[in-house]
């Protein structure tokens, strides 16, 4: 865990840019483009945010965070932070890394989903690798990072799309690329779904499409079942409208959770026995089919009993 000091700058579109650094100027742990850190905003409020700065810069981390009135409290808490405050953060973790084998990288960021793409563009440009970046927003006035992209050293590789000017044409964008292109998309669910569907019609392979979700519509409801935490010697009943995390917490076993939406993977746990009912957006279809891991914040059991390695 790191304790870092905040420099805060308000951007347009209800976005705040946080620059986090050691008060004494020490170098921070390195990371690769696509990585995120967890902000510990209170004892029970931990949220993951993508790093949007240049990965080569070890002096600070940067996060761009949208003020979302529909959030579960994370973004609202971030926007109350003040200049000079200290915050605890995790070391960077990367679940959305660039593929070294890609001949070309197509970066698509919608709204605040542009944040990991900024780090990706910086890393690709520094390495002299081929890429294009598409930034889609409702309007230019609400595009928090438009000025940064227009003045970037790779600005000629950036294309801007605004709903009230010229909308993003996914068929054209996904067609006008060289062979062995890998696609990276982050943003609203409808954008990511559209990218996936369009890519399928254009014969992209599943391994060429990479995405990172900021939110997900998770339904935890289902039949009650029993969970045995083998290593802890605890058995709990998970009620119809209760998550495994909540049931375990009532029994005194606290699970590390962050997003609580099956996105970040912080509560990923091995399954020793039983069949998971996956409700997450983190595991791949192949990993879900294996049935040996589960996201405890949202997934359930298909049967009456699940034994986990916890």
From TrEMBL:
<dbReference type="InterPro" id="IPR006058">
    <property type="entry name" value="2Fe2S_fd_BS"/>
</dbReference>
<dbReference type="InterPro" id="IPR054582">
    <property type="entry name" value="DmmA-like_N"/>
</dbReference>
<keyword id="KW-0288">FMN</keyword>
<dbReference type="InterPro" id="IPR001041">
    <property type="entry name" value="2Fe-2S_ferredoxin-type"/>
</dbReference>
<dbReference type="GO" id="GO:0016491">
    <property type="term" value="F:oxidoreductase activity"/>
</dbReference>
<feature type="domain" description="FAD-binding FR-type">
    <location>
        <begin position="1"/>
        <end position="99"/>
    </location>
</feature>
<dbReference type="InterPro" id="IPR017938">
    <property type="entry name" value="Riboflavin_synthase-like_b-brl"/>
</dbReference>
<protein>
    <submittedName>
        <fullName>Ferredoxin-NADPH reductase</fullName>
        <ecNumber>1.-.-.-</ecNumber>
        <ecNumber>1.14.13.-</ecNumber>
    </submittedName>
</protein>
<keyword id="KW-0285">Flavoprotein</keyword>
<keyword id="KW-0408">Iron</keyword>
<dbReference type="InterPro" id="IPR050415">
    <property type="entry name" value="MRET"/>
</dbReference>
<keyword id="KW-0560">Oxidoreductase</keyword>
<keyword id="KW-0479">Metal-binding</keyword>
<dbReference type="InterPro" id="IPR017927">
    <property type="entry name" value="FAD-bd_FR_type"/>
</dbReference>
<dbReference type="InterPro" id="IPR039261">
    <property type="entry name" value="FNR_nucleotide-bd"/>
</dbReference>
<dbReference type="Pfam" id="PF00111">
    <property type="entry name" value="Fer2"/>
</dbReference>
<dbReference type="InterPro" id="IPR012675">
    <property type="entry name" value="Beta-grasp_dom_sf"/>
</dbReference>
<dbReference type="Pfam" id="PF22290">
    <property type="entry name" value="DmmA-like_N"/>
</dbReference>
<dbReference type="InterPro" id="IPR036010">
    <property type="entry name" value="2Fe-2S_ferredoxin-like_sf"/>
</dbReference>
<keyword id="KW-0001">2Fe-2S</keyword>
<keyword id="KW-0411">Iron-sulfur</keyword>
<feature type="domain" description="2Fe-2S ferredoxin-type">
    <location>
        <begin position="225"/>
        <end position="310"/>
    </location>
</feature>
């Amino acid at each position: 865990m790191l304790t870092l000091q905040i420099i805060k700058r308000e951007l347009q579109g209800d976005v705040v840019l946080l620059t986090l650094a050691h008060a004494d100027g020490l170098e921070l742990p390195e990371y690769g483009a696509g990585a995120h850190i967890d902000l510990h905003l209170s004892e029970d409020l931990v949220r993951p945010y993508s790093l949007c700065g240049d990965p080569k810069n070890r002096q600070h981390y940067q996060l761009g965070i949208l003020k979302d009135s529909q959030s579960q409290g994370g973004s609202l808490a971030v926007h109350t932070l003040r200049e000079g405050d200290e915050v605890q953060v995790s070391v960077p973790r990367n679940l959305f890394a660039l593929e070294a084998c890609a001949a070309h990288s197509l970066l698509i960021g919608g709204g605040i989903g542009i944040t990991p793409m900024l780090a990706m563009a910086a890393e690709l440009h520094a390495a002299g690798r081929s890429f294009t970046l598409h930034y889609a927003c409702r309007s230019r006035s609400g595009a928090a990072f438009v000025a940064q992209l227009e003045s970037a050293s790779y600005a000629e590789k950036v294309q801007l799309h605004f709903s009230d000017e010229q909308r993003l044409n996914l068929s054209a964008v996904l067609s006008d690329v060289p062979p062995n292109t890998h696609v990276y998309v982050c943003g609203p669910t409808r954008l990511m779904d559209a990218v996936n569907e369009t890519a399928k019609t254009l014969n992209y392979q599943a391994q060429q499409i990479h995405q990172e979700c900021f939110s997900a519509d998770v339904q935890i409801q289902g039949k009650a079942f029993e969970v045995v935490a083998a290593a802890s010697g605890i058995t709990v009943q998970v009620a119809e409208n209760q998550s495994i995390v909540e049931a375990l917490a009532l029994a005194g076993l606290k699970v590390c959770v962050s997003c609580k939406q099956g996105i970040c993977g912080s509560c990923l746990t091995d399954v020793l026995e039983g069949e998971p009912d996956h409700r997450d957006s983190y595991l791949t279809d192949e990993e879900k089919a294996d049935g040996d891991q589960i996201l405890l914040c949202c997934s359930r059991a298909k049967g009456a009993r699940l034994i986990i390695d916890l």
